[in-house]
What we know:
This protein is mainly alpha-helical and about 450 residues long. It is built from 20 helices and 6 strands. About 40% of the residues are buried.
Amino acid sequence: MNAEAKKQLALQIITNVGGKENITTAVHCMTRLRLNVKDKSQVNADTISKLKNVIGAQWSGDQFQVIIGQEVGDVYKEVIAQTGLASEAAIQENLDDQKKKFSFGSIIDAISGCLIPAIPIVTGAGMLKVVLIFATMFGWMTADAPTYQVLSFVSDAGFYFLPVFVGAFAAKKFNTNVGLGMMLGAILLHPTFVSNVSTGTAMSVFGFPIYAASYGSSIFPSILAVFVMKYVYDFFTKYVPTAVKVILVPLLTILVMVPLTLCLIGPAGSFIGIYLAEAIMWLYNTVGFLGVGVLAALYPVMVITGTHGALFPPMMQALTTLGYDPIIGMSGVIANLCQGAATLAVGVKNKEERSNAISCAITAIFGGVTEPAMFGINLKYKTPLYAVMGGGFIGGCTAGLLKVYMYALGGSAGIFGFAGFVGPTSANLINFFISIAVGMVATFILTLVIYKPEVK
């Protein structure tokens, strides 16, 4: 799309969602424009899905998603320019109209909103660990080399200080003070607190005992603490006199949140994180290789319905707690690559779709962006999507049998995401390529067998 086409598309989307007055927030991911609106009845989803350069449109909970592809960032800029939603004040207005019913989807949206901004941190830190593994594997440096030791603690910092990072992102998500959100995370990592925990020294505040827990690399304690802090901060902001507000509001908020965080919220968040990671391992140890296969088969359906975001928090928790993820990461990569394999097979059998199919396959396999392949080809003809699910199950079971683990976010959900599977031994990476090859070949063959070009 050229600049004019992007501008026109943005204007058409705005018009068909009820105008800029009906839009409360606008964000985007790699392929989708995500809009929250006041009145859902004003959204013409069918009209939007038929617009030129739009792959599809759907509701995910209370969020309306327009699937555009890799140029979504430029369209998003045009939407922001036309609606004036760039400032935080504009996003925060009419909060009463934005109140949603408490639901599982709203919980996942809140947690994901706090964690997604941390992806560059975790990806960068994880990839730095991969670089160090390669460096020692190929003899470029030794573990006692000064450069190795510096890069090692730098990579550890990305994970260890997650409570501070997540505290800031949670504060932005919940529309409260970012500085105080970071401070709550920093309290959990203060050297004195960490030292007392490690030595078993008893601690208390205002007479309340403090539970000794280790919060390094944790994510849920900060999210829960900042969520509660929002209401404490808003309460004092509302009732403290204006003349002393700048002094008393942060002071009173801290005095209230310190005992709540250290005695109640922090331990609760720690338990959630620990048991969530253990639940993942329980599932893996109980159903074994079938768990990876079933999740890889269901992953495309979860993407279509927008529920795949629920997988991100437990995957992050496993990476930060266990140091690896045995199920979710591998399932997602296999499912994405199988999307590309199915689209490629459609191109082989359907001459009219060949050019589009090959383009979608390349985007899915090398870029890890599957929406064009899924909505433009596989879901359109249905049978290729069934092949994706079948091939994903076969590839996932293979990965489960070979015990392929993801050790870091690889920065790509496609073939180049292999870097995240570089582990202590080379066998893990070799088994990764074997698993995706099995899944892609199975998907390609299944598509050739069950897909009929004349059936849409």
